[in-house]
């Protein structure tokens, strides 16, 4: 299935036609009268999640969008663009779609791989990176591909991290972390890791934090990427972790009674002292977590069934904020926080994307965003009556003729040749009385005609050429 490449920006943006509108518990009640099932208003009724607005929640759901390919594939990754007001969504079918602004208007849609799912998307200054199982695609935001990289070292990739303007790191289920140069489009280094591989990469002011699926987190030096510290966070498996300032928080699974069980405690580490501090107990089974950048100590934790909890790593005794994302019972696969901390985005296994905001009236994805490029609007032709004799025929655009064919309105070549007015002959009396001084000739005016008067024969010739 193919999708349109780039859309046109509409200033009078309304709810998309494929938007899923959910009505809250306290929303307007619509009374059915007789056989009439028409709603009394066409206004958009915003969704009201559980534990949301009526309970003093901070975030409220404003948009729910069914992404391209959602009827068959789930949204495996969602990412806020750090340079423009865009949201990027990658699904299990290798398709990437971007949406513009709080209205979630579709901006671009293209495929980066035919069979493999999109594992992660990262935004650069003038392009984006899309990581699949064994390839890295660089694509312009308009949808034009720049390069596709693949090698024998890329076996089962999971994550990527930009550590410099032209350097990215890639990790996966393999015993090496790949260093890739964007300018040269080639791998410039390999760094060994544990046998479990590297599932998550995060950057700290002093370290590159690499989490492996077995529950360990390696703290590597920024320049050499050598392992300096190892944190044994979970005995079973690592689900997710995030770092902000000097605090690192993880969630995962522990081995209990011969199996794996979800840890309802977040492991918290102080990177200044390199030791664990008081863990945080949750009311849900954590799967994904992110720090809220505007609050140095606040976290957003998401469970697999679509529950979200906001906690504070300092004020642990504070009453938690609980939310329930309307996933329809399917699993929540991806989650991201905007750089302005005013928006949260969720992607589920049904291919639906949910946008939450803390300020529905004056919120932005980024504090300072670049201007987004849109497709040129299609020029509409003015209506013309068939018997209108005043409108020029040239107002109707015609296609360029195919080579070897002509239009019926084309004139023969002998009728479209350029002709120029001939120079009138000089009066013979002037030539007889002319005196030469070098290359310049002087002659008295014979006054053979009045001022602004021309010969009739010359006027007839000039009129013919005109």
Provide a concise account of the structure shown.
This protein is mainly beta. The chain has 2 helices and 31 strands. GO terms for molecular function: poly(A)-specific ribonuclease activity.
Description:
The protein is mainly beta and 466 residues long. It has a domain at 53-357: YVTN repeat-like/Quinoprotein amine dehydrogenase (Methylamine Dehydrogenase, Chain H, 7 Propeller), CATH 2.130.10. Helix content is 3%, strand content 38%. It has 2 helices and 31 strands. The strands form 8 sheets. Strands 18, 19, 20, 21 and 22 form a 5-stranded antiparallel beta sheet that branches. A 4-stranded antiparallel beta sheet has the order 1-29-28-27, with no helix packed on it. Strand 18 and strand 19 form a beta hairpin. The two termini are 60 Å apart. 33% of the residues are buried. It comes from Gryllus longicercus. Pfam families: PAN2_N. Residues 61-357 form the PAN2-PAN3 deadenylation complex catalytic subunit PAN2 N-terminal domain. One of its GO terms (molecular function) is poly(A)-specific ribonuclease activity. This is PAN2-PAN3 deadenylation complex catalytic subunit PAN2 N-terminal domain-containing protein.
Main sheet summary: 5 strands, antiparallel
Please identify the top-level CATH class of the domain at 53-357.
Mainly Beta
| Cα shape | elongated
Our estimate of the beta-strand percent is 35-45%
Q: Which percent range fits the helix content?
A: under 10%
CATH topology of the domain at 53-357: Methylamine Dehydrogenase, Chain H
Let me know the number of strands: 31
**Name given to the CATH homologous superfamily of the domain at 53-357:** YVTN repeat-like/Quinoprotein amine dehydrogenase
Poorly predicted runs are: 1-56
Structural class: mainly beta
Mean pLDDT: 83
How big is the Rg? Answer: 35 Å
| Quaternary structure of the protein | single chain
Number of helices: 2
CATH architecture of the domain at 53-357: 7 Propeller
* C-alpha end-to-end distance: 60 Å
């Amino acid at each position: 299935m193919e999708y349109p490449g780039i859309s046109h920006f509409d200033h009078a943006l309304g709810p998309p036609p494929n938007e899923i509108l959910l009505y809250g518990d306290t929303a307007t009640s619509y009374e059915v009268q007789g056989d009439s099932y028409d709603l009394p208003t066409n206004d958009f009724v915003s969704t009201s999640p559980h534990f949301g607005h009526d309970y003093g929640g901070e975030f409220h759901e404003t948009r729910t969008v069914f992404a391209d390919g959602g009827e068959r594939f789930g949204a495996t990754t969602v990412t806020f663009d750090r340079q423009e007001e865009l949201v990027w969504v990658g699904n299990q079918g290798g398709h990437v779609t971007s949406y513009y602004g709080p209205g979630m208007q579709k901006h671009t849609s293209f495929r980066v791989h035919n069979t493999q799912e999109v594992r992660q998307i990262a935004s650069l200054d003038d392009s984006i990176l899309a990581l699949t199982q064994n390839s890295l695609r660089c694509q312009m935001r308009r949808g034009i591909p720049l390069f596709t990289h693949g090698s024998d070292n890329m076996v089962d990739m999971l994550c990527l991290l930009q550590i410099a303007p032209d350097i990215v790191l890639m990790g996966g289920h393999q015993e090496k972390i790949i260093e890739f140069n964007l300018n040269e489009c080639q791998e410039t280094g390999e760094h060994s890791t544990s046998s479990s591989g590297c599932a998550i990469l995060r950057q700290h002011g002093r370290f590159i934090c690499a989490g492996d699926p077995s529950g360990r987190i390696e703290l590597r030096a920024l320049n050499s990427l050598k392992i300096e510290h190892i944190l044994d966070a979970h005995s079973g498996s690592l689900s997710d972790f995030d770092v902000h300032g000097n605090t690192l928080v993880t969630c995962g699974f522990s081995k209990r009674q011969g199996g794996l069980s979800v840890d309802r405690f977040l492991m918290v580490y102080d990177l200044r002292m390199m030791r664990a501090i008081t863990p945080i107990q949750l009311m849900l089974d954590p799967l994904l977590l992110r720090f809220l950048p505007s609050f140095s100590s606040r976290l957003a934790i998401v469970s697999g069934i679509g529950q979200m909890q906001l906690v504070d790593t300092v004020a642990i005794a504070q009453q938690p904020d609980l939310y329930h994302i309307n996933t329809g019972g399917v699993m929540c696969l991806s989650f991201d926080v905007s750089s302005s901390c005013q928006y949260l985005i969720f992607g589920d296994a049904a291919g639906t994307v949910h946008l939450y905001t803390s300020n529905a009236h004056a919120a932005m994805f980024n504090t300072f965003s670049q201007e987004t490029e849109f497709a040129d609007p299609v020029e509409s032709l003015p209506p013309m009556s068939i018997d209108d004799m005043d409108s020029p025929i040239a107002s109707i655009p015609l296609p360029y003729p195919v080579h070897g064919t002509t239009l019926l309105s084309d004139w023969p070549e002998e009728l479209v040749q350029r002709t120029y007015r001939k120079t009138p002959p000089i009066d013979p009396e002037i030539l007889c009385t002319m005196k030469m001084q070098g290359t310049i000739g002087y002659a008295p005016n014979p006054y053979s005609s009045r001022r602004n008067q021309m010969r009739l024969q010359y006027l007839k010739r000039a009129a013919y050429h005109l």
